Amino acid sequence: MNRSIEYLLRRLGFYTLAAWIAVTLNFLIPRLMPGDPAQIMFARFKGEMSPESIGALRETFGISDAPLWGQYFTYLKHLLRGDMGISVSNFPEPVINVIASGLLWSIFLAGSALVISFFIGTSLGALAAWRRGGFLDSVTPPLLALLGAFPYFWMAMLTLFVFGFGLGWFPLWHAYPEGTSPGFNLPFLFGALYHATLPAATMVIASLGGWMLAMRNTMVGILGSDYITYARARGLPPRQVLIRYAARNALLPNITGFGMALGFVLGGALLTEIIFSYPGQGYLLLQAVRAQDYPLMQGLFLTITLAVLGANWLVDIATLILDPRTRR
Amino acid sequence: MNIRQLFSHLLVNRKARLGLCIVGFFVLVSLAGQWFVPDPTDFVAMPHQPPSAEHWLGTTGQGQDVLAQTVAGTRTTLMVGFAAGFLVVLIGAVIGGVAGYLGGRTDDLLSLLINVFMIMPGLPLMVVLAAWLPPGPLTILAVLVLTGWAWNARVLRAQTLSLSQRDFVLAAKVSGESPLRIVSAEILPNMLSLMTSSFIGATIYAIGAQVGLEFLGLGDISKVTWGTNLYWASNDSALLLGSWWTFVPTGFCIALLGFGLTLVNFGVDEIANPRLATESLWVRKLKKHATVDGSTPVVKGGVA
Lengths: 328, 304
Prior knowledge:
heterodimer; A: mainly alpha; MetI-like fold; 0% strand; B: mainly alpha
């Protein structure tokens, strides 16, 4: 047990280092860029604001004439209090509140897509390996490879065009129907599910192939091992051999992949939300880009990075619990 | 194997030949295409016109010719894509190679750096970087390279590590060759096919990411590229007005180019790993002689 704690602490150390690098990058990027960050940031206010109020804004955003080290410590101190500055496009709302407003929607959309895609993908992969060379095994990989050649956000655009605009089966934007109020009431809950279906479906289709291929390859290896041959020789029902003997063990490497996929899924979800005008982190990111709202952009980068790091650590813990070999 | 040999092998391979044809077609379009189409920035007709005899792919929301825009967009998109692919592999090879060859403390430190960059979510970092830098193809290139090198560095590090333990490298070390010569004459030539497929993979990634960034409006929106074409399509509410022709052709071009590059990659894999090619030959032969009871079929005369 001691070794596993040591392992977890080492991983935690790595994630802390990665987080520190992300935080520092976030601080350095605007300050190392050509030109005065304050001037780039407030370019859109030119002529509308007096020099005094721009000076006050500089103060608020932590850009001062103090030496870089001093600015860095002020920045860290603010960050520890959860203060990421003030959103320019939602002035004077703090960045953290703006981000929080979209966080739940993002987690709901990306999380459910990830879980559904993982479940279907690994099941299909297990089946494909079980019937090697069969229909599932020979038809799906090239099909998914072909789908994968199209840029993801373009597929999402086409899906929205065909099913939302052309056929009118799904809503074109937003996360819940107009006229319902968020809360525990049926019209809102069903509406939210309905609105999430199409975006989640595109994410599932785009990420299905990866899970399927990974699961298939581990399964093929495991199906060749002695204990599977033995289980078959004992005359156990094939379904039992497939699920309880082979698939259960093949799942482990895939769970490690789950953590890595999280970053990609969150990244992909950004584009999904943008296409479907879904009010999560991605939509906020687009608004931030369009309005040149740098503090919001950077806050989003930081939140997403920290979320990915934290999720990876949770996956490390899960692997440790699920795989007895790592505990020895 | 040197580059010329690799190339002549590629021309013999069926998949790679088709892939090279597709990629070659796009390169040709990017070089000479602009002579055959009108100026892509000219307002030639009413906006949002569907495909017609006059404008084969219709017009954009601004009244520009979609075909001309798609053709003209090829050049910047391809240039940035290939350049990013090349730089990513170059940086990956240098960092991964140094880490894998030297080992020890240097390796620990560089591996840590590689892992940190791999775990950071790429898209938000790209957006932040691209937003602060002045917009343009060079910015996109820099951003792609900065966020994309880690994956290749990891792959090439592993390969260097495994090669530097092989007997022929050890023999070169014992006979007193300089490290520079060992790396350039013993290790690098053996990594050529891996680096080629890394380059192709990185190019595919770079084209996709570049189009994505420009679609978000982070490119120079006054330039004509595939990404900015999509940006304008979405900005002119192509989806709501039903003008599918403004975004479908670009998507197909990206997919076709990616497909071509993937085919070349398959070819490279088969050259580097001849077992893949013979294996598929065996599978084809055996399928014809398939047995019902699962016993091992025997092919008369074997596989030539």
